[in-house]
Specification:
CATH class of the largest domain in chain A: Mainly Alpha
Radius of gyration of chain A: 21 Å
Largest interface: A-B, 84 and 83 residues
CATH superfamily of the largest domain in chain A: Alpha-helical ferredoxin
Oligomer: heterodimer
Number of strands of chain A: 7
Number of helices of chain A: 8
Mean pLDDT of chain B: 96
Helix content of chain A: 25-40%
Number of helices of chain B: 17
Strand order of the largest sheet of chain A: 2-1-5-3-4
CATH architecture of the largest domain in chain A: Orthogonal Bundle
Structural class of chain A: alpha+beta
Bound molecules: flavin-adenine dinucleotide, iron/sulfur cluster, FE2/S2 (inorganic) cluster
Distance between the termini of chain A: 70 Å
Mean pLDDT of chain A: 96
Shape of chain B: globular
Chain lengths: 258, 641
């Protein structure tokens, strides 16, 4: 049954553009249904702002069901807010109580410049994938899908890693702004599968080095796993590091044979 | 009679040979010449990403546009249930012919046989291609691929990756595209929106875009342009589509001469979480795959307020099992949706607002155990719990139909070319394969079929004769005029300075279309909508308020353009529904039903595609027809009893 929350105070980061210094502004929400999602509360606020002739608050969002990875809010200092394993868009107001003050900020990381208000540019994540997060298999030449049986536990482990939605919460949560969880998820997804073996060593090397070009380095804080809406396991980072060390040796050996 | 512009170009020969015949006869472009051709692909969903990656692999010079921040966010990512293919890995009697037949029948005999047959044929290659890309499909313990069944089919031909099939397929295609971006063969334009298409001397010469970060409007010229821009289900405001899905690309092409086919063929999906209150911004789908194990029911008697577990078996109405014994809970979407609407309309709805029906897993949990149910549907159950605060392992889910998919779209021929030469449409943006109703797990199949296995051939056939011929540059007056018009249009929204936001108008517009052009349509209701829509549109033009400016991120301004296009589309949807005086698939006209309340088709007068030509005012659009010929399949009443 729907109840209402009253007297919420929102402290929201407003910034006119990448060059602007930015500041917090406070907004009051007198009453909101606890059935509303967090983003629907922002919709209601935006409608009100437009009604008052003010600019709406910019924030990224799309699917609103926790799969596209577009939403990206720091809520009370936590990436995607207080509920574990949940993206911002899946968070509902029933997780808050009347009288709460809620601080809403964009992802903060050197690699993610703020475009406006709560919206950031996460393009460096794409650059990591472009460097090696794929299997080279041009359209048309693929053999029958059932030719290589893949043991269910292997397929399942690859899927656990592949569930990453590319939101960047791991980067935002990391004190160093590292993208290791994101990168490790993609490396592991592909390096676990038989189809991914041919490029296993070149993939991990290229992806890790591109990651290092844009992002900070990992010092094993583990904040990323706690913030991840898909609960991607930090074990994948260990896997990636292991593959990276082996790749360094192997790739050198392979090169020396040419 | 078929209109002269609507030649389907389906090749001659027996159905099973048509595609091979086409490929044998088509013109080729030499690999070294391919890079001389610029191809624009708008959209990076399954259709766009697969097309762009493949065209670039072949050697074409490709530009990809998406309004998203990354190609991986396209709405395809949200598809849950699965993808069909006639692999017959189960040995349960599947074949290309059967998938072809099921799709034509599922579409209530309103699709083009030649296109659908090709779709069924290439479905085989899709699974091979996606496995090669590393898509972690579900597997059996022996390591082979697992499949399951889906609404509208009696076979287990649906491949899946947990409840995130769309995500995994899109990531597969996105990674292939990312590789090409990394190699420099594809140029990516992210956060850039198409706002117009440009036609010079009867050919598509390119597009005009607006940068969503800087507001910059600019032109892009190309030899061929492909729109893979998704469906228009958000016309209803509340739908399962992502918030940013819109019709702008297709509509702007329509305004420049591309015919829009069967706009009233929209799909209402039976299993979505019902609306909870009026702040609701979108609805969430609960995958149809849940109907494999969940049983749909409502209390037998109206006004029964007891909690589900206190209602004894004999006071429950498992209405799908009762009405459609051979398909039961897996009856096709249109049929299941209407049955749910009737149950709720009869006062037997469940939940606080009495606006849903039960989807109950108690029997499945008893039979299979909670762990198996969790393994199959865990993430969907979690999703449900987050949204409603209820635990579906202990109480039935509540579901209700919602706008989900649009079968209508830009008219295309066998080569996926629109009525504007050089302009193609693929994926949900075209109208081609699903007739009046789409079967579950067939949209992902179609998007990838179009992008991977159809366009890369048919575009070459168009480009080959254009080798070394100059094309109009972005300094051509048509480009300049289109840019100018786009700038004025967006400035115009800012200058109205009225009192209502774009969302306000979208909500009101959506309500009108949902009430009168939704699950059930009548002549009277459609007439009413057609008088209300232009009035509301006039109000939009006078009373819109867009705050902020046009030179930086402004989501209110983006929304204004999209809502305006939905207005014009909404009118066309209602006109199309009014003119189609029959019931078929998702288009249910209350006047045309049999004694049992099932849809009554009129093959005599309506076995055709309605393709609309823009004239400046959607209320005055001209209706053209492409007659559908059924060479292989006999028209029959679609029965799932
Ligand atoms: C919740 C949900 C679940 C579904 N589940 C299934 C399922 O299980 N099986 C199945 O077969 N189908 C399913 N479908 C349907 C299927 O997902 C879609 O039909 C399909 O993914 C559409 O793919 P597409 O490539 O045509 O378009 P989309 O994936 O919608 O991509 C559109 C692209 O176009 C871009 N774009 C659009 N307009 C513009 C513009 N003006 N300028 C620039 N770029 C633009 C967007 O940025 C995006 O990249 C589901 C749909 C929904 C809503
Ligand atoms: S690893 Fe988790 S937090 Fe990081 S991008 Fe992927 S889903 Fe987001
Ligand atoms: S909006 Fe898609 S994950 Fe949140």
């Amino acid at each position: 049954m729907s109840n209402h929350l009253s007297n919420l105070t929102l402290k929201i980061w407003r910034q006119n553009g990448p060059a602007d210094a930015g500041r917090f502004e406070s907004y009051r929400i007198d009453s909101i249904s606890d059935e509303a999602s967090f983003l629907e509360m922002l919709d209601v606020l935006n409608e009100r702002l437009i009604g008052e002739g003010l600019e709406a608050i910019s924030f990224d969002h799309d699917c609103r069901e926790g799969i596209c990875g577009t939403c990206s809010l720091m809520i009370d200092g936590q990436a995607h807010g207080p509920q574990r394993g949940t993206a911002t868009c899946q968070l509902h107001m029933r997780k808050f109580k009347s009288g709460d003050t809620i601080v809403i900020e964009p992802w903060r990381a050197t690699a993610f410049p703020i475009l406006r208000d709560l919206m950031v540019d996460r393009a460096p994540l794409d650059r990591i994938v472009e460097a090696g997060g794929f299997i080279t298999a041009a359209t048309g030449g693929a053999p029958d899908a059932n030719i290589i049986p893949i043991p269910k536990p292997v397929a399942d482990a690859a899927m656990d890693a592949a569930e990453c939605i590319g939101c960047g919460a791991c980067v935002a949560a990391c004190p160093n702004g590292a993208a290791n969880l994101f990168t490790a998820a993609k490396v592991s997804h592909l390096n676990l599968l038989p189809q991914g073996q041919a490029e296993r060593w070149s993939r991990v090397e290229a992806m890790v080095e591109t990651m290092d070009d844009y992002f900070g380095s990992c010092t094993n804080h583990g904040e990323c796993e706690a913030a991840c809406p898909k609960s991607i396991s930090i074990d994948f980072i260990a896997m990636m590091h292991k593959d990276y060390r082996r790749a360094k040796v192997k790739n050198r050996k392979l090169l020396s044979q040419v | 009679m078929t209109d002269s512009l609507l030649q389907s170009k389906v090749p001659a020969g027996p159905m099973a040979d048509k595609w091979d015949n086409y490929k044998a006869d088509m013109k080729l472009v030499n690999p070294n010449n391919k890079r001389k051709f610029k191809v624009i692909v708008v959209g990076s969903g399954l259709a766009g990403a697969s097309a762009a990656a493949t065209l670039a692999e072949l050697g074409y010079d490709v530009d990809v546009f998406t309004f998203h921040d990354s190609p991986r966010r396209a709405h395809s990512i949200a598809a849950q249930g699965g993808i069909n293919a006639a692999k017959n890995y189960r040995g349960d009697g599947d074949s290309v012919h059967r998938l072809f037949y099921d799709t034509v029948k599922g579409g209530d005999f309103r699709s083009r046989e030649g296109n659908v047959h090709r779709l069924a044929q290439v479905s085989l290659n899709i699974i091979d291609q996606m496995v090669a890309q590393g898509v972690p499909f579900a597997r059996e313990y022996g390591g082979l691929l697992d499949t399951r069944s889906f609404g509208g089919s009696q076979l287990q031909r649906t491949f899946y990756a947990r409840g995130q099939t769309g995500q995994q397929l899109l990531l597969g295609a996105y990674q292939q595209l990312a590789r090409q971006i990394g190699l420099g063969t594809v140029k990516l334009w992210n956060r850039v929106e198409l706002v117009d298409t440009v036609v010079v001397d009867g050919r598509c010469a390119g597009i005009v875009t607006r940068d969503l970060v800087t507001g910059e409007v600019r032109s892009h010229a190309a030899h061929a342009t492909v729109l893979c821009t998704g469906g228009y289900g958000n016309a209803f405001f509340l739908s399962t589509n992502a918030m940013n899905c819109n019709v702008t690309a297709a509509w702007r092409a329509h305004r420049k001469g591309a015919y829009f086919a069967n706009p009233c063929f929209t799909q209402i999906h039976p299993t979505c979480i019902p609306q909870a209150d009026d702040t609701q911004s979108k609805l969430t789908l609960m995958s149809e795959s849940l109907r494999n194990d969940g049983r749909v029911w409502v209390p037998l008697n109206a006004g029964d307020e007891r909690p589900a577990d206190q209602i004894p078996e004999h006071e429950r109405d498992y209405y799908l099992e009762r009405l459609y014994p051979s398909f039961g809970n897996l009856a096709p979407r249109d049929i299941s949706s209407r049955a749910a609407k009737r149950a709720v309309d009869s006062g037997r709805g469940v939940g606080p607002l009495k606006n849903g029906v039960n989807l109950d897993f108690a029997d499945a949990i008893g039979r299979l155990g909670k762990d198996v149910v969790k393994e199959r549907y865990g993430n969907l159950f979690d999703m449900y719990e987050r949204i409603t605060g209820e635990d579906p392992y202990s109480v039935p889910m509540r579901i209700y139909p919602a706008s989900h998919y649009t079968m209508g779209g830009l008219w295309v021929d066998y080569e996926l070319m629109t009525t504007i030469p050089g302009l193609y449409a693929a994926g949900e943006a075209n109208f081609s394969d699903h007739g009046a109703n789409r079967l579950g797990a067939s949209a992902l199949m179609q998007g990838l079929a179009d992008g991977y296995f159809v366009l890369p051939y048919t575009i070459g056939n168009y480009l080959a004769p254009m080798l070394n011929q100059p094309i109009p540059g972005t300094d051509h007056p048509e480009f300049q005029a289109a840019e100018q018009a786009a700038r004025q249009r967006f400035q115009g929204f800012l200058d109205i300075r009225g009192t209502r936001s774009p969302d306000y108008f979208h909500r009101e517009l959506g309500k009108i279309i949902w009430d009168h052009c939704g699950m059930e349509r009548t002549e009277q209701g459609l007439q009413k909508a057609l008088s209300e829509l232009p009035a509301l549109y006039d109000e939009f033009k006078k009373d819109l308020r867009v705050t902020g400016d046009g030179a930086s991120v402004n989501q209110t301004l983006e929304k204004a353009g999209r809502v305006e296009d939905f207005f014009e589309l909404g009118m066309l949807m209602c006109r199309d529904a009014l003119e189609r005086k029959e019931s078929c698939g998702g288009h249910f006209r209350a006047e045309y039903q049999d004694e049992e309340g099932e849809a009554q088709r009129d093959d005599e007068n309506f076995a055709h595609v309605a393709a609309w030509q823009f004239t400046g005012d959607p209320m005055q659009a001209i209706r053209h027809q492409e007659e559908l010929e059924f060479e292989t399949i006999h028209l029959a009443k679609r029965s799932y009893k």
